[in-house]
Amino acid sequence: MFYRDPGHTYHVAEWDAFPWLLHGFGTRHCDLPERFAHLATVKQIHSAECVAAEGRRGVLGEGDALVENAPGSVIAVKTADCVPILLVDERRRAVAAVHAGWRGTAARIVEHAVEKMHRTFGTEPGDLHAAIGPAIGACCYEVGPEVREQFGGQGRGRLDLTAHNALQLENCGVTRSRIHASNLCTMCGGEEFHSFRRDREAAGRMYSYVGVK
Ligand SMILES: [Zn+2]
Known about the structure:
The protein has helices spanning 32-35, 102-106, 109-121, 145-148, 161-171, 196-199; strands spanning 2-4, 10-12, 21-25, 39-43, 50-52, 58-62, 65-68, 73-79, 83-89, 94-100, 128-132, 142-143, 157-158, 179-181, 206-212. The protein has one domain (8-212): 4-Layer Sandwich (CNF1/YfiH-like putative cysteine hydrolases), CATH 3.60.140.10. A hairpin with a 4-residue loop joins β9 and β10 (94-100). The longest helix has 13 residues, at 109-121. Strands 5-7-10-9-11-14 form a 6-stranded mixed β-sheet. The chain is of the alpha/beta class. 19% of the residues lie in helices and 32% in strands. The site of zinc ion has 6 residues, from loops.
């Protein structure tokens, strides 16, 4: 279950049980880089590339996901309609932040991130918790045939990126009851979100972050 704090950031209520964890899904009303001096990000390129942050700060090259387990570190992705996904390995105290637009979702970036956590930290999918943050919903996301084909569809129609990412997480072994989806639509969900489809070049980006205290 998601809730919004007084600082206009969304959190997963179930994750408040992890005292070692920092996490949140920002809105247009909060400026995360100022809150975290030690943020690590990547130059996002709509790929399936996952970067191990290893305690580093700043922009760590090109990619669309980061993984980390160093205490005191916070990793983040930026979105405005694309899907932000946070992964938490409860047992090994490791985390991942993933940016999944339609290209990244078609390239199964969230599965690559789970695999990267496995290789880097020994993470087992059964120990993972996942949160899928505010993104453009099927209510507003109409795409052409060239995009729907990537997801087994035909012709123009709606695409539910949150559902596809949830399915990918389940397929690689994450327990369904541990996959939390906000189901908040950035486009029709109100002014608190940036939406690229709605605001075009004027749209800002929202930070979704996760870290180990
Ligand atoms: Zn919508």
